[in-house]
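Let us practice reading a record.
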Amino acid sequence: MALSNEMRRLETKWQSRNGWPKWLEWLEMKQIRGWEGQRINFDFPIVAIVGENGSGKSTILQAAACVYRQPENHQTWFPSEFFPETAWDNLPDARIEFGYKQGEDHPLGSVRKPTTRWLGQPDRPERRVEYIDLSRLQPVATRVGYARIAKTKHLENPARALPFTNQQVKRLSQIMGREYDNARMAYTNIDETRELTVLSKGNVPYSGFHQGSGETTMAELLRTELPQYGLIIIDEIESSLHPRAQRRLIRDLAVAARERECQIILSTHSPYVLEELPLSARTYILETGGRKEIANGVSPQFAMTQMDDEPHAEAELFVEDPKAAVWLAEILSRHARELFVRCAIIPYGAANLGIALGQMVSAKRFPRPTVVFLDGDQGSALGCVVLPGGDAPERVVFNTLKQKNWMHLWSKIGRDIALTSDACDRAMLLADHHDWVRAAANSLMCGGDVLWHDMCTEWANAVRKEEVQPIIDAVEEALAT
């Protein structure tokens, strides 16, 4: 899926390396909730941390909040708030180590607990931090003390109302996909310590007692200031939001990150959130053999497969992207159908992630049979199998079919043979092979997925089995373990 305009503009500014004078570059935790010094890198203005419940997502966010002390009159987060010692929880020699950018400098820092007290906290760098845990927001009616307001005759205290700015109301309207006139945090004469969100739509106000949970969540999130050069941490960002609202929220945050040069770290289980982010912004926490592994650049398909029991395949075959997945599926379907039906093919994302997954395969850290494939232009790597042709899938398939006058592709897609040849030939003139399928499909007025599938089918029909035998052997070997 192509990046939104908002995310693309953020990526362009980030790649220019201009801006963001304050930046948390990485952190490591030791002796805290199963972390043993694995490094978590933050290589984009918005980074999503993904993983199963209990994998350590919130721990990363909480540790990041403890890296900085805040300017005066702003709440500073302390490790003891997030990582207390209890009768059941002992933290011997706990440490949070980190690297950060401060202007042109790239210092190192740490907070540590060698005995009973956390040390190093006064030495932390200064930066505005906003920590927002959306997972803990409850419906207004279930919050302590709010039932008394609902059951007692009351009036709003207008002197204490905190109206949203026009910009905040506009953002709320865009994310939720409906037009709000205004919004405010209100207080009653019954209890001046408990606030309520009051929204107005069609000039009719309604409070948190009558709002959808997504409306309440977004209203309380958007009232939070996103400070210039600050660090914003959001736990379970998709809470109570439907898919379109999730996408709009990430795009809204992309605008804020670009304009205010702030850094956003969030946790999620949502494929819709991941699809909005570039590969460098996706970090998955794998737990294999009792150890946490950091996988950077994951695809939404990879993340969802790791967090779900479906499909129930005997083996998992990891490839770089959906085009490689279709190609591999057609190879196996044509030359080893008995293996194909026993496997799930999953795109993983960035090539360097494939290399890391291959190392995990070599160390036998996956719970089920696994084969990791690299595109031919990546070369060999430990624990990986290289796809045929010595080049990217698009180049291999296009070049082979071109040499064979495009075989019966024209018949499969229902187009004239000359038109099919001309469209594919012209597409190959483009410098970036990633654009070839889209360009040819546009010329032929057919879907890109349909065209690529039929091209892969023709390629698999043309190739001899011995040319793809290393792939078949790797899958057979995995299934035999």
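A brief commentary: The first strand starts at residue 22 and ends at 32.
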